[in-house]
């Protein structure tokens, strides 16, 4: 398992559109993807799970991946969260 912590830089946080983009990117990987905020962990391939976290800009999240492409998955997904778009 590979995991990395990142501070969300998305201007409006992880709301509907960025959450959808995150899930679309996560679904390209065969690894199991999770997103953790505090003590709550959700399936990174579930739009409802991600929206339930109510992640705002400046929130620290942990991206976890477990599988054959885990390193590439964590790298790609953390870069989405760390971008300011």
Report on the structure:
- It is a single chain.
- The chain is of the alpha+beta class.
- The chain has one domain: 2-Layer Sandwich (Histidine-containing Protein, Chain: A).
- Helices cover 35% and strands 27% of the residues.
- It has a four-stranded antiparallel β-sheet with strand order 1-4-2-3, covered by helices on one side.
- The longest helix has 13 residues, at 70-82.
- The radius of gyration is 11 Å and the shape is globular.
- The termini are far apart.
- The model has no long low-confidence stretch (mean pLDDT 96).
- This is Phosphocarrier protein HPr.
- Residues 1-85 form the HPr domain.
- One of its GO terms (cellular component) is cytoplasm.
- Keywords: Cytoplasm, Phosphotransferase system, Sugar transport, Transport.
- InterPro entries: HPr, HPr-like, HPr-like_sf, PTS_HPr_His_P_site, PTS_HPr_Ser_P_site.
List the main descriptive attributes of the protein structure presented here.
85 residues; alpha+beta; Histidine-containing Protein, Chain: A; 3 helices; 35% helix; globular
Summarize the helices and strands and which ones pair or pack.
Elements: E1 2-7, H1 16-26, E2 32-37, E3 40-43, H2 47-52, E4 60-66, H3 70-82
Antiparallel strand pairs: 1-4, 2-3, 2-4
Keywords: Cytoplasm, Phosphotransferase system, Sugar transport, Transport
Organism: Alicyclobacillus sacchari
Domain HPr: 1-85
């Amino acid at each position: 398992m590979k995991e990395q912590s990142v501070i969300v830089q998305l201007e409006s946080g992880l709301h509907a559109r960025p959450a959808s983009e995150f899930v679309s990117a996560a679904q390209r990987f065969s690894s199991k993807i999770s997103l953790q905020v505090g003590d709550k962990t959700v399936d990174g391939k579930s739009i409802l799970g991600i929206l339930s976290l109510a992640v705002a800009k400046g929130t620290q999240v942990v991206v976890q991946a477990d599988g054959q492409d885990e390193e590439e998955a964590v790298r790609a997904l953390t870069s989405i969260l760390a971008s300011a778009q």
